[in-house]
Design brief:
homodimer, three-stranded antiparallel sheet, 10 strands, 16% strand
Amino acid sequence: MPTPDHILQIGLSFWASKTLLSAVEMEVFTELAKRPEDLKTLGGRLGLHPRSAHDFFDALVALGFLEREDGVYTNAPAADLYLDKRKPSYIGGVLEMANRRLYPHWDKLTTALRTGQPQGEAGPDGNNTFAALYADPDRLKGFLRAMSGVSRGANLAIASKFPWSKYRTVTDAGPAQGDLLVQVALHNQHLMGIGFDLPEVGPIFEEYVSDHGLSERLVFQGGSFFTDPLPQADVIMMGHILHDWNLDEKRALIRKAWEALPEGGAFLAYDAVIDDDRSKNSFGLLMSLNMLIETKGGFDYTGADCIGWMKDAGFREARVEHLVGPDSMVVGIK
Amino acid sequence: MPTPDHILQIGLSFWASKTLLSAVEMEVFTELAKRPEDLKTLGGRLGLHPRSAHDFFDALVALGFLEREDGVYTNAPAADLYLDKRKPSYIGGVLEMANRRLYPHWDKLTTALRTGQPQGEAGPDGNNTFAALYADPDRLKGFLRAMSGVSRGANLAIASKFPWSKYRTVTDAGPAQGDLLVQVALHNQHLMGIGFDLPEVGPIFEEYVSDHGLSERLVFQGGSFFTDPLPQADVIMMGHILHDWNLDEKRALIRKAWEALPEGGAFLAYDAVIDDDRSKNSFGLLMSLNMLIETKGGFDYTGADCIGWMKDAGFREARVEHLVGPDSMVVGIK
């Protein structure tokens, strides 16, 4: 006889989610990275009410984000590396965004499912999600940092897995802070790269690249990937870009990449690519629902979908390669 | 080197949660229990927008709640048994409540952590959470049905695990619909039982008991477990009751149980009892945060906590027994 465990576990898993999101919001891990602390000191420093602190920290222990020995809390290794705001490896930006925006937006999932319309700040038109972000430098920086967070694992995989020795130049279209280019350049000393995005991204990209000592090899070029040609290079990359757009826009972006490549050049698009049977990569399918909630026409896609679009755009071959977790890259060769 | 997978998976797990909650809200499983359906028919019948339907249903496949063969969707076995509204085994009430109330309330977790005050409809006082529920028969019925949903697995375990042959009568204090008494009575033909709760619960309890053909053996008695004595019986039960209340109230309820028992009688309290080290039962710790959000003073507790309170109340022995999933019962013998 089937048990109800899985149903209840998933149905109430927003409890664990929101607990982690509040911990990131309150900078629990940044605080504990400075020094281990006991319940009273940590709760006091973070401004927690005595009723709440004990259960909150112990829930973070049971979820694997904190450790506790003799009443003293420390960060678990992954939390210390990825959720301490003062470390360059911090990926909490995506969780800050999830906490502030996505969690309340997803409360309107049923409306999104019935109307097909986004439920974010930009309203049912949703055209202005990105425009609104780009208009506010603080929000833009937060968003771009969030994108580094959600992409770090894939970026590291691409930096080491892709046959970079065959190529000399690379353009990243929609690079956010530039983390993909940074990881690729750190692992491949011979490469020169261009980050291409709307001009507002320039200072944020340049600061991040400079922090990693790569300003000599990675430069920014301002422009729109819908109205301008992409900077020519041996490899064109788009990470978590294609899924933001509707089918016509996806096809236009793929064609733009083809046009900017030499014969033999490679287009590398990555996303939480859905398995061709659409029955396994739950994260990719849920990400597509997130695009429903956040954008006017965006959706995630299978490897077979993307290979088809690449072939239609003129690429002579295309293949899917798994990266890490839910992310795969689709590589097209011109 | 640690990976960020677990952090991102938990941090965004509200996506999967809300997807299941919306599916229950839209009665996807009740619809599919009638007949398997293809994408277009199912999406049309449920009023889904074409942009949304495919990803939504396939996400439910990838999460294990639906199955799909040749484009035709059916319920997975557990979803068919527990999420079809027309079956008595339906447990979706707790997910309906989570969807309508808890998900938005948890958006204010950070405020709850900082203030120690509940964040539900009843406002920061929170005293009136139950009063408001009991005042509205429809909301009350929904809440009591939700409680059956979250308790079913534990109720079945108690019905078969506890040494019922030693006892003849049983009182359930705060029985909701009466599912625990119903399961116990179905498995133990010799038992007579009383459901004890505020009078508003009476008709709902009696309907549920009658639906199971047990009206001869299970009766309702109206009263308040804070101001009235509990109906005397060989066994007193409280399921998901103690965690609703503050420490003084918990102690008062345990003492009430002791007073209503004969020498040798058993008090059986169950909840998502936290492990004594407070480092493993994440669900119990998160349930305690849910009590922070929903009640003025409620909290979940460890087995050692509860055994201590029972001993203080006069029980001569007390022990913890695991039931199912996160739930355990604490049994005190007078």
